[in-house]
Each structure stands twice: as C-alpha cells, then as structure tokens.
Write a structure and sequence with these properties.
The complex is a heterodimer of chains A (about 425) and B (about 230). With about 425 residues, chain A is mainly beta. Chain A has one domain: Methylamine Dehydrogenase, Chain H, CATH 2.130.10.10. Chain A contains four helices and 28 strands. Chain B has one domain: Glutaredoxin. Chain B starts with a helix and ends with a helix. The longest helix of chain B is centred in the middle third of the chain and has 17 residues. In chain B, the strands form four sheets. In chain B, strands 3-12-11-6-7-8 form a six-stranded mixed beta sheet. In chain B, strands 1-2 form a two-stranded antiparallel ribbon. Chain B has a two-stranded antiparallel sheet with strand order 4-5. The chains are: A mainly beta (about 425), B alpha+beta (about 230). Chains A and B meet through loops of A and strand 10 of B.
C-alpha cells in the first residue's frame, strides 16, 4: 500500500533522518514516505525508435497492480533536445525536465493525474532570459521557486550559471559561477573555473554546494573524440563551490580534480557533510564542516580501478546516511559503500547492472532501487553494448535482487535517463 | 482563561519541545523565547544590502476581512510598507504555530529599530475561513502580538469565504488540501509553509520555508529592502 508524507509534514523544521530523500531530493520538497507508485523517466529520443522524440515515460511501480513494472503512459515533447535531468517543484505538483542541447525546459503537471502527466508549459527563452546560460541541467526545488543549474553558455564553453524561476515558470534571476577573473568574493577563487553541474542546499547551515562538468562543445560531441582531443580534455571542471545560499554568493572554492558531479548532502541533524564522485579520477570525495565551522573537501577513496576509467556517474545516499550507492558508466557497475564513517567508506557490495549504467534512484526507505542506462546521446555505447533499460531491484542491506526491468529500445521509447517518483496520495 | 485554552489548542505537543512560551505578568501577550530549531540558526548572515533580492512576481491582492470583520483589499495594504505575509490557519498543529512564534520574535526585533518599526508590517492570513472568522483571528492575534506600541503592526486577516480564497491561494502558489481524516494529528489541512516578503511597490522579493524563517534573516532582508528606498 502506497503512502505519502503529507505536504505539511515536509515543513517541519528540524531535519530528521526520517526525512531522507528518495534519491536525494530537495529538502524543501514533500516526500513520499511509503512505497512510490510511479516512476517518471525523462527519456532521450532516438532516431528510428518509436516517434524519435524525447519523452516522459511513466512506469507503474505499485506492487500488486495489474500493470506493475510496465509503462503506463508516454508523453513526447516533440523533437530531440538532449533530455537529461530535471526535478520536482517543492509542492511536488510539477515535474520540470530540460534539454541540454535546445536549452528548453518542459513543465509537466503530475498532480492532476499522477498516472498520466501532462505537459503544461514549455520555456523556450531560457538562454535569452538568463543572459546567456546554456544547457539547463538540474531542476532543484526552492520555496516557491526552481533553481536550474546550467552547464554551458552562448559560446558553448563551460562557463555557466544557475537560473531561478518561479514555480509557474517565470524567470527570476541568474547567478553566475565564480571564476578566477570574476571571483565574486569567494575564497580560493584563483582556482575557480566557472563550470557547473549540480547544486544542492543544506538549509540549516545556509550553504549550497555546486559541482562542475563541461560545456556544450564537449557534452554534445562523441565521447571518443573528446577523450582523444587533449584540448577538449582540458575543458572539464575541477572544482566545487560552497555558497552562502541565502545571499546566493560564492564563499569558497574547493579543488576537486576530475569532474565532480552529483552532490548528496547527508540528512542527520549533525551530519554537516556531502558526498560527490569524480568522473575522470574515479574517486569519492567528502565536503565537510569541521568543529570550527570551516569547510573542507578531501578524497576519501577510489571507485573500482581508476586506471580503467570506470567513469563514476550517479550516486545515491541512503536515508540514514549509512549507505552510498555509486554507479560507474563504463563497467556498468553499481558499488555500495558503508559510509557510516563518512571519512572512511567501505565497499560492501557490487553488482553489474548492465553493459552501461548511469542513474540510480532510491526509495526513501532504502528498500527499492531503480537504475537507468543512458548518459548522453553521443556518449552512450554502441552496438550490442547500447543497452537501454530501467531495472528495478530490492535491497536488503546486503544484496540487490531483481524486481522488474523494461527494455526501452524494445518498447520503442529511447534512452532512459533521470527518474523521479510519484504517488497519488501526495495530493489526497 | 480563554486565551490560554486557545493557545493550547494552537500549539500541539509535537511542536512544543522546539518552542517555549512564557507569559509576562506585565503584559497580556506572551513573551516569546525561541529555542530548539531556532538555535540551529547559528550561521553567519550576509550583511543587509550586500546581496540582491530580485523581484519574484507581483503580490496579488484579494478582498479580505480584518479582525473586526471590516472588508479590505490586500493590495491596498502593501503600498509604502515592507510586508511579511504568512499564510496560516489557527487549527494547525504543524508549522503554523512555529511560524507565528518566529514572526512574534521578528516583531520584537523590529520594535528595536524605529525606522523598521514604522515601515514594516506582518500579515497573518488564514486559508481556513470557515473556522477562522474575524473573531477567531482577533483572539489569535491578541495572543501573538507584541503589546509595545512601537512594534510594527501585525494584522490577522481572513477571507470572506472559500470562493474569495481560491484565487488568492493560486496567485501565491500556496498549496492547501483537506486531509482525508480531519481529526488526525496536526490539524485538518495539509499545506506547505510559505511566508512572503513583499516590497513597498507590491512585489514579492523572497519566499521563506520553515528552514529560513529566521527572525535575524528576515530583519536583514527587510533592511536590505529599506536600503533600496531613496
């Protein structure tokens, strides 16, 4: 039986482990505390596969449902935009998804009928309104607003910013990442490279942490070309930035070599730290506040064999801050670490999910995990290794057991990427 | 005493560990001491005027009722004042009582700043008009308001009915839904706590969740807006 945390409960002030994320959602957002009912999958279109368009695919995740584990709704947005990431508004009524290539943002109503999302608005002037940010990436819920982290700019290089919108899709403000030339008052800004990727807030410490990837010139180029181009390989992010969230001002730049991607804050009320993984150097990093309220970033371990370039991608931290799931694209592995001591992760399980794997989403109770396969249209593997799937597992604390899987190519859907959970009980 | 029993109804046991109220015999209204979660507000705040508060959207108006039952237009209240507008309902056992205490603390803080006290106002607006009549709001206001005449004004407003309320909630994107079990803990309505900072020209300049309903932060934002004024 699905159950959802009432909207009101999500505003309780004191952070609690019980308010853990389902795959690391904004702390401002209402949470599903029981079993998720639907998984929304933002999917890249593939020429010759179905209608070829990017689409939101709704999967029935209700145990016992006659359509359990099946696709129950498909909403194409028309065309291919390099579907990538997105997110839910704080009231969880709308699902924002964006295209890294077209810089369009598509807003779906998931509240009116959670089993049947409807496209209600398209933002097609993101670049113009933001003053030149390109490649809308994450969509992160703030109170009454959405924070869109960009990847690029009008020159298609990696300098970028974050863009705020109202929940109804009206532009509010742009916050550019600091650079050595424009440090904006940040400490250690001579190392600032201006790249962006993820942006996540720890409200009780009034801090936001951002990470860094690369610009349009690289993420839209075939991966094989990029890695063989020394100049292109220099155009990747090597920093994270700690911000004064309330003032939206960068405080401190950390050197985190090798493309730090996803940011996951811990949830425990005294756990003032976040994890990230570095794609090119294959390391887990910890960004933490010490007893003097000073912040640090340090490498706390490697993921697989860095010499083999496993390319860590998505990560997911469990509700009690004890377990970190780390996916790596090239070897198709998920590795599970005990991070009870955040300074010393211990590998407790590993499993090959497929020939390639990218995203991992975890239910708030930690018992169910969902994996998707696609990274970028031009970076996914080819031939038989181009598996495109959603695979669902149960996790008993020791092993992952298959629950269901959907072949997104056989179903004429495309390349599945970001996942978010839905439940009708959120709106009852 | 009527007010005490009313207060007891407002503040549920689940929230009281985070908040303490003490009645000052010299004053009819409670002296508010914020403990618990407020103690977590230990981070350093950016100085007023050192950051921007972009216009988010126009603050919608609506026909409302004041504590005496007199009709007024919400938008008429914004002109020339800096407004902190909080949606709430008095039967709430979740975030509304905490928010009210934070706003009471803000009122005290603002009372210490003569310029702020003159220009700032706090509006508590119920989205439960069937229960929160003007009389109920007046009683709630009497409990929460600082008695000092130099304190900024704090008005407790309600809607004349659900029909008048719905477009207002939509305009402020304030989610409210009736619970399946109206007798359940926390009150009969589900809602997200949203508090709005509105400038003297009627534009929303910040939106606060419970996490950032820090009276010091609110004062800094109000002073930031004051510094914009020629």
């Amino acid at each position: 039986m699905a159950s959802a945390l009432a909207l009101a409960a999500s505003v309780v002030l004191a952070p609690s482990p019980a308010f853990a994320d389902e795959t690391c959602q904004s702390p401002y957002m209402a949470k599903i505390t029981g079993e998720e009912e639907y998984v929304y999958v933002w999917t890249l279109g593939v020429e010759g596969v179905g209608d070829g368009s990017d689409k939101v695919v709704t999967v029935d995740a209700r145990s016992g449902s006659p359509t359990f584990g099946q696709v129950i709704d498909v909403d194409s947005v028309g065309g291919r935009h390099e579907a990538h990431h997105g997110g839910l508004t704080d009231d969880r009524k709308h699902f924002w998804v964006s295209g890294l290539d077209s810089s369009r943002i598509f807003i779906f109503d998931i509240a009116a009928d959670p089993a049947n999302p409807k496209l209600v608005k398209t933002i097609d002037d993101f670049v113009e309104k933001s003053g030149g940010v390109v490649g809308p990436h994450g969509a992160y819920a703030l109170p009454g607003r959405m924070l869109i982290s960009g990847l690029s700019n009008s020159d298609k290089t990696g300098r970028t910013g974050m863009v705020e919108y109202t929940n109804d899709g009206e532009y509010v403000a742009t916050h550019w990442m600091p650079t050595a030339e424009e440090p904006q008052g940040a400490a250690n800004a001579d190392k600032a490279d201006g790249y962006g990727y993820d942006a996540r807030v720890l409200p009780r410490r009034n801090v936001m942490l951002t990470s860094s990837f690369t610009g349009w010139n690289n993420y839209m180029r075939p991966l094989g070309e990029v890695v063989n181009d020394p100049q292109a390989m220099k155009a990747f992010g090597n920093t994270m930035v700690l911000w004064d969230f309330h003032a939206r001002k960068p405080r401190q730049v950390f050197e985190v070599p090798g493309v730090p991607l996803e940011v996951r804050w811990a949830w425990g009320p005294n756990n003032n730290y976040a994890f990230t993984s570095t794609a090119l150097t294959s390391e887990i990093w910890l960004v933490y506040e010490d007893e003097n309220q000073e912040w640090h970033a340090k490498s706390i371990g490697t993921i697989g064999d860095p010499a083999q370039l496993p390319l860590p991608v998505d990560i997911s931290l469990s509700s009690d801050d004890s377990t970190l799931f780390v996916d790596s694209f090239m070897d198709g592995m998920t590795r599970v670490y005990d991070v009870t001591d955040p300074h010393s992760p211990k590998l407790i399980h590993e499993k090959k999910i497929g020939s390639q794997v990218n995203m991992v989403s975890q239910s708030w109770d930690g018992e169910r995990l969902y994996y998707t396969s696609s990274l970028l249209a031009n970076w996914d593997k080819t031939g038989a290794d181009n598996e495109q799937f959603l695979k669902a597992y149960t996790w008993d604390g020791k092993t992952l057991s298959p629950r269901f899987e959907i072949d997104f190519l056989a179903e004429d859907l495309g390349r599945p990427h970001l996942m978010r959970f839905g439940s009708a009980e959120l709106y009852n | 005493m009527r007010s005490s029993s009313l207060l007891a109804g407002f503040l549920t046991a689940a929230l009281l560990p985070a908040v303490s109220l003490a009645h000052d015999p010299a004053h009819p209204a409670p002296r508010v001491e914020i403990e618990g979660p407020a103690d977590a507000y230990v981070y350093e705040l950016a100085a007023p005027g050192s950051y921007n508060l972009p216009r988010i959207k126009p603050a919608a108006g609506a026909r409302l009722l004041d504590e005496t039952g007199k009709a007024l237009d919400l938008s008429q209240l914004f002109g020339g004042r800096l407004t902190v507008l909080a949606f709430m309902y008095t039967r709430c056992g979740d975030a509304c009582p905490l928010a009210a205490l934070r706003l009471a603390d803000l009122q005290q803080l603002a009372a210490e700043d003569a310029a702020a006290a003159r220009q700032v106002q706090i509006l508590s607006l119920s989205f439960d008009p069937d229960h929160d009549t003007p009389a109920v709001m007046a009683e709630y206001g009497e409990l929460m308001r600082h008695p000092d005449i130099v304190a900024p004004r704090w008005l407790f407003l309600t809607a004349p009915g659900q029909e008048a309320l719905e477009p207002l909630l939509a305009a402020y994107d304030q989610p409210v839904a009736r619970k399946a079990d109206p007798d359940g803990p926390g009150g009969p309505l589900n809602h997200l706590l949203r508090v709005f900072l509105i400038d003297a020209e009627g534009f929303v300049r910040n939106i606060y969740s419970a996490d950032f309903l820090d009276p010091r932060l609110l004062m800094n934002d109000l002073r930031t807006l004051q510094m914009e004024t020629p």
